[in-house]
# Entry
Amino acid sequence: MGEELKPCRRCGLDVTPDGIEVTQTDTGTYTARFECPDCGEVAETCMRHSSEDFAVADVIDDWNRRWVDPALLARLAELEAEKAKLARKCVIFQTLMENIMGTAIIETEEHGDQTAGAALAAIRGSIYDTYHELQEVDR
Ligand SMILES: [Zn+2]
# Structure
């Protein structure tokens, strides 16, 4: 058994091929199975092999193929968190735009051009609130 097993993808345990169980079927072919002694994660051959060595190589291949670099998983979690923050910021910006449009329309319809100053003050207030809401997302 020359090939090494990568650590368990579920619990991270360093495992060795010693625990690989090879079974001979009634037709003389071989299947192999490996179970993580710590968490029970399982790899199994899905076909029958003509030799014990082929079955072992296949189960090692299956086990290793499903392994994922923990650094990549950590990076993935970082990116997911970043994505969630950006999605929140988009909603906040959308709300700001709606507030600005709503303020401009209401002020114009109700009071005409004379209240441009009041509309600007309300818009300024919306922008100020939004600025602080955006800062909250990063905390
Ligand atoms: Zn495990």
Summary: The chain has three helices and three strands. The first strand starts at residue 21 and ends at 24.
